[in-house]
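Encode chain A's predicted structure.
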Amino acid sequence: RTYERACRRFTRWLGPHAGPEDLTAANVSRYHAHLVAGARSSATVKKDRAALDSFLRWLAEHDHVPAAQVRDALAVRLPRAQGAEQREIPKALSQGQYERLVREAKARIADDALAGTRDLAIVLVLGDAGLRCEELAQLDRQDFLAARKAAQLRALNVRHGKGDRQRRVKLSTAATTAIVRWERERTRAFGPAAGDAPLFITLGRRRRDSTYTRVGARCGQAVLAAILKRLGAAAELPDELRHPHALRHTCATELLRTEGVNVADVRVFLGHASVKTTSIYLASDEDRQEQAVQRRERGRPTLDDDRDG
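Encoded structure for chain A:
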């Protein structure tokens, strides 16, 4: 059915009076340029091309179109989207923006200790440990690991990473403290929880009697997105940074700026299958370096200024 829809799109583009003679290499090339110009994803363009190739081969096999004409059409290479050689650079928070976000999360504790401590712990786990939403949602209480012997930092056991890959992620002191505080407030409110209970749970809306409307489910993507949208607005972050994955981007970018940390280390930390994925964040860092050099140069005399002197 996907192939059928793709072929229908092509025939509509050709027009109502098109015939087999219009299935030319030139038209195939123009059609795919049309798809790229229309901001179709590369995956959609490739699927459409695969469908069209299959259709053309069938037409040639059944003598509806000359074989030479089909060979020419099949030889047409897919056009590259503008900038296709580079993936879009992920947007990350600056240090100041991240600090504002953390401050807003801390400020909420004064109004609602339970929800506030949970939200602060979530922000720090996403931002300091760089977890994906689905990884955070699948964490159980028992995945919050004690520090190993002779080690100072605690860790999270991520058992349900992307591609079902597992990894152990070291936590910052701030993130550890926030989780411990959340666990304490949670126990105070609801009593002890089992080890296989979710580490982060939904609360819902707070009632006037300080109870909550929806307690105990895992914090899925919708809940996490709502938390970050609210805190991001309070921290006056741009709209595009008010979502959980921006914190993962922030974590990756900051790690790559850390002296002595290489791309391979960060790949393992973030749970990327390939170092190529991790390398996307290097482009972001190069942009910042260029901006820094440009700012520095604005205050320096140019060669022409030197000659004038």
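The CA atoms of residues 36 and 81 lie 6 Å apart.
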